[in-house]
Amino acid sequence: MTTSNWKKVFTQLDAKPIKKQKYAKFNSPKARSCGVAQRKCTNCGRMRGHINKYNLKLCRQCFREMAVGLGFKKYS
Question: How many domains does the chain have?
């Protein structure tokens, strides 16, 4: 069974609980222990451009907005 809408699949499989359980088991996202997919920006939720130094856990765009408030200075 293939479809682009995940909610539609679950409504179709409501009548078949065993197939629904098997579908959810094999198609659910994998739990990550390391890597890019685990680190998210605490402000906006982006996964790319992540700054983890000093335990900031912000993406670079959010860091630029909050840097002055956090006590960072721009040297140029």
Answer: 2
Structural domain harbouring 16 = 1-30
Check whether residue 43 and residue 76 sit in a common domain. yes
Judge if 42 and 19 occupy the same domain.
Answer: no
Q: What is the pLDDT of residues 7-58, one digit of tens each?
A: 677 788 888 889 888 888 887 777 788 888 788 899 998 988 999 888 999 9
Q: How far apart are CA 1 and CA 7, in angstroms?
A: 13
In SS3 terms, the chain reads as: CCCCCHHHHHHHHHHCHHHHHHHHHHHCCCCCCCCCCCCCCCCCCCCCCEECHHHCCEEHHHHHHHHHHHCCCCCC
